[in-house]
Amino acid sequence: MSTGTPLTLRVTERLDDRGAIARIRLEPVQGTLVPFTAGAHLDLHLVENTLDLWRQYSLCSDPAETGFYEIGVLKDPVSRGGSEAVHRLAVVGAELSVEGPRNHFPLAEDAAQSVLIGGGIGITPMIAMAKRLHALGRDFVLHYCTRSESVTAFLDTLRAAPFADRVVFHFDDGAADQKLDLARDLPAPAADTHLYVCGPQGFMDWVLGAAETAGHASGQVHREYFSADVDLTGEGFEVEARASGITVKVGPKDTIAKALMAAGVKLEVKCEEGVCGTCVTDVLEGEIDHRDQFLTDDEREDGDLICACCSRAKGARLVLDI
Ligand code: FES
User: pLDDT tens-digit profile of 131-185?
Assistant: First the structure.
C-alpha cells in the first residue's frame, strides 16, 4: 500500500473550511489511485521559487474510496512554510507531485473498542479511521477538540456523517461540562481497547500522559505527530558513515543529516522534525540521544535506529550503516 515512486495528482476540488483549513481533493492525472489504509498520509513535494519542501498530510477520505484522496491542511503562519505553500499552490486544476500513501499510524481493525481523539487539524486521520470503523461495524467514539465551534473544520461533514452519533465535539470556549475530561472520557484499560491521538504537541502530551497514568498499555495507545519542536542543542560529536567511507563532525545546533549530506553522503530527509521516519538509519556503534517523535519506545531501547534529521549522540561518536 505504500509507494516511494512519485506520482502526479491533480487538485479537483478545494473547500476553504472553518479554522483556515483547506480541504483538498486529489485525483490521479493518469491511471488509478494506490489504495490506502486508515491512518495513512501522503508526502507532498512543494516546489515554488526557492522553496523545495516535502510535507506529510494525513488522508481523511474513506479508505474504501477509489476515485480520489482528500487531505485537510491548516494554514499555519508559524510553521516553516509548508502549509502556507499548500494553500497557495493547491488551487483547482493544479498538479502536485506526491509520494505514498504510507501508514505509520495504522488502525487495529479487530479491536472491540476504539477511542479516537483529535485536536485541531489532528482530526484528519481520525476521520478516515472513523469511516473505516463504521464500515466494519466496530464500537468506537471520536472526540474532536477545537478552540471554538466557529473554527471547527469538518463540522458539517461530521454532523451529517452516518456515524454522527459517535462524534463528540469539545470546544475550548464552550461550557465546562462539554470539554474533554480525560478522567471521564478515557475508557478503562482493557486488552481489546485501543486509543488513538493526533494533534498539537501539548495536546498529545496531555492525552498520552493521562492514558499512561490510567494504565493503558503502550502498545494500545497510538499516536501521530504532525510536527514537533526539535531540540537540536548539545555538544558536538563525530559520525562515521561506514558504508560511504565518510566521517563528519556534527557541531552544536547542526544535525547529523545536514553534516552527512554536505559531505556527499546520500540520505533522504523530508520533515526534518523527527516525525515522518524518512531519515531513519541503522546505527552500528555508539549511544543515541533520541530527539524524534517517530521511533517507538521499543525501538529506542534496542538502540540501533536513529532519526538522523534531529537525534544526536550521547557520547563522542556514532557509526551509521550508510
Ligand atoms: S526526515 Fe522526517 S523523521 Fe527525519
Answer: 999 999 999 999 999 999 999 999 999 999 999 999 999 999 999 999 999 999 9
d(CA 210, ligand 1 centre) in Å: 27
Q: Is the CB of residue 270 below 6 angstroms from any atom belonging to ligand 1? A: yes
Q: What is the CATH number of domain 237-320?
A: 3.10.20.30
Inter-residue contact 83 to 24 (CB < 8 Å): no
Distance 99 CA to ligand 1 centre (A): 15
Q: Could you say which of 3.20.20.80, 2.70.150.10, 2.40.30.10, 2.60.40.10 is the CATH number of the domain covering 7-102?
A: 2.40.30.10
pLDDT at 4: 62
**Average pLDDT across the chain, whole number:** 93
Tell which atom from ligand 1 comes closest to the C-alpha of 276. Answer: 2
Using an 8 Å Cβ cutoff, are 220 and 195 in contact?
yes
* Structural domain boundaries in the chain: 7-102, 113-224, 237-320
Residues 145, 170 contacting (CB under 8 angstroms):
yes
User: What is the CATH architecture assignment of 113-224?
Assistant: 3-Layer(aba) Sandwich (3.40)
Give the DSSP letter string of 198-219.
ES-HHHHHHHHHHHHHHT--GG
